Structures are given as structure tokens and as C-alpha cells.
Amino acid sequence: MPLLGRDFFLRDVESVARALVGRELRHGRVSLRITEVEAYGHDDTASHARFGSTSRTAPMFEEGGALYVYLCYGIHQMVNVVADEEGTGSAVLIRSCEVVRGLDVVRARRGGKSGPALLTGPGKVGQALAVDVGQSGQRLDRRGGVTLHPGSLARALLCGPRIGIDYADSADRRRAWRFAMEGTAWVSHRAGLS
DNA sequence: ACAAGGATCCTCT
DNA sequence: GAGGATCCTTGTT
């Protein structure tokens, strides 16, 4: 299966977020189709980039196509796709996926869970893909690690405000920067999407 | 050097 | 619906 090339990522983060729904993330034997994402921009008080580049967030400022992984609540490995030109500081959080390949591996990694509990929520995506902060900064358009493939595009997208960003300014909280595939069961929070 | 809090998940009620 | 887990990152002193 072909890789998505560098140009795919070199657009504004909202465009990349919309274009990511339906695509496939691969790592080893596991292939996941992206069903729900959130965009985090530069000049966005919800974004980790709001303090500029730090040791944790440096990959966000790389050229689009880098992987950005961070630890949340000391437990969860959160998987993001970096967007736009080098130095911008924007990324797309992968919130939910459906399993395309490697269901047995994913189930084992996810403690035997089934149904929506298997893979709706960003921490679960990191666990299912076996991605951790040690891989933050890797390229998604080079074979050998985590890679991104065309998959099949969503018929239509639902959108709504992002989850878990109460600390942000009200204008940023209201941005409709969460995108989900219409008709899929693989969405972490259905409320607020339309 | 310190204190605060988090782009979450699971379990229990 | 509520609360605890768990530890790193950040701004501040």
C-alpha cells in the first residue's frame, strides 16, 4: 500500500485534519482507519504549541508529516500528525479508529475489550498502535516505523468543538475543530457533532 | 526547586 | 455520574 507523500501534510491544520479522516495508520502488523480527529493550530490557546517550542513539543514545529506523541495524565500516549510548514506549530490528534488489520493484536493490547471500548479515545489509539513518546518526531512518510496510507475517504464529516480543553479561551473552545466520519460507530463523544 | 494540573481511561455506584 | 490513577511538563519563585 502506498504512503501518503510529504505534500499531503503541507497545508493548514484544519485541511489536514479533514483529509486525515478515513486514512490508515500502520505500525507493524496493525493497520487502523482514522474515524475521529481534532486540529490544534498555532495561535490556539488549546494547543501545546501555545508556549512555543519546548523539549516536549518540538516535533509540533517540524515540517508537516512528523509524528508528535506526548504523555497525558502520566499514562496515555497521545498520537498526533504534524501539519503545515516547518515552524508553524500545529498538529492533529487522532481520537478514534477502526481496526483494518491486526484485530487479534489490538485486542490483546487493549485488554480483550470489544465494541466501542476497544478503540474510541486517543489514549486507546496509542495503546492499540503500540506508539509511545520515544517515537515522537519520527516521519510518517518514511517506511520503517509508523506510516500513513491513503485508505478510503469518508463520505461526509461531522464536526463540533474539541474535547477536554476547558483551560482554553472561550473563542478557542467554541472552534468546531473536531471531525468525525459520518455513520461510524468509532467516535469517542457523539454529543456536539453535527 | 516547587506546585499545579493535564488534548484520558477505567471502575464502581 | 463521580473519582482515582500516575508522572511529566510547565510557569513561577
Question: Briefly, what is this?
Answer:
This protein has 194 residues and is of the alpha+beta class. The chain has helices at residues 13-20, 103-109, 122-129, 170-174; strands at 24-27, 30-40, 67-72, 76-82, 91-101, 147-149, 157-160, 178-181.
Can you give a write-up of this model?
With 194 residues, the chain is α+β, with helices and mostly antiparallel strands. It has helices at 13-20, 103-109, 122-129, 170-174; strands at 24-27, 30-40, 67-72, 76-82, 91-101, 147-149, 157-160, 178-181. Strand 3 (67-72) and strand 4 (76-82) form a beta hairpin. The longest helix is centred in the first third of the chain and has 8 residues, at 13-20. The mean pLDDT is 96. The protein binds a DNA duplex (13 and 13 nucleotides) through residues 38, 40, 46-48, 51, 54-57, 70-76, 78, 80, 93, 95, 117, 121-124, 133, 162-165, 167-168.
